[in-house]
Amino acid sequence: MARFNSFLDNINLAEIADFIREKGCVCHYEKDYIFIQQGTVARYAALVVSGYFKLATTNTKGDDAVVNFAFPGELITDFHCSLYGEQSEMSVIAGTDSEILKVPLKDFIGVLSPNLLIEYRSLFKSVLLRHLNIYRKTPEQRYIELCDLYPEIIKTVALKDIASYLLITPNHLSRIRRKLAAEIKEKYEK
After folding, report:
1. What is the dihedral of CA 57, 59, 61, 65, to 10 degrees?
2. Whose CA is closest to 100, among 69, 78, 71, 79?
3. Which of 60, 101, 114, 150 is found 20 to 30 A from 163 (Cα to Cα)?
4. What is the pLDDT of residues 135-180, one digit of tens each?
């Protein structure tokens, strides 16, 4: 499977990951544990060892809207707000039983490269492209693209979280999946 957060390939986080591996405290969290609560100031940064985390914001209906995922080998914190000591704009929630290595945020910030803001540009480009694709592509096209790029995601992430990430309801995702299954079946029956 391709790396889900491929924008991270353009940011040199090896030193930070090594620091967390060396100094981090091992923590086990059950599914739905809230590592960072939206509206609070993050106190820790962490490296995901196993499981996955979903990054979610609360929509106007009061429901969680999944905006991203973090898988093993990836960092979790509300990066932007953490750098400036601001209240988090999103929650970081264990999507399954997970293990992380966590360090105090002040220690994490202390090892950041002075060039990180330059490297961080790729993140902004990735976010912009995701935002534009919401307008450019249909939910079905976005789902197909997600499955093509990350085929294992369907086995790993709850469908309701995938639907939220795609900005559709779980029922809409079910309809898309049924339609695609019928099209595949029809194709091979000919």
Report:
1. -60
2. 71
3. 101
4. 678 899 999 988 988 888 888 999 999 999 899 999 999 999 999 9
* C-alpha distances in Å from residue 167, one per residue of 17, 33, 39, 164: 31, 23, 22, 5
Contacts of 78 (CB under 8 A, 6+ apart): 36, 42, 55, 88, 89, 90, 92
Which position has the token pair 């294992």?
Answer: 152
Report the greatest alpha carbon distance in the chain.
62
The 10s digit of each residue's pLDDT in 42-94 is 999 999 999 999 988 887 778 788 888 899 988 898 777 777 778 888 899 99
User: Is the entire prediction scored with pTM above 0.70?
Assistant: no
Q: Which candidate, 70, 68, 90, places its Cα nearest to that of 17?
A: 70
Question: Which backbone phi and psi does 49 adopt, to 5 degrees?
Answer: -100, -45
Alpha-carbon separation of residue 133 from 78, 126, 141, 146, 185 (angstroms) = 23, 11, 9, 12, 28
At 110-131, the pLDDT tens digits run 777 665 655 555 565 566 566 6
Q: Which two tokens stand for residue 176?
A: 């898309």
What does DSSP assign to residue 51? S
Residue with tokens 């995938």: 162
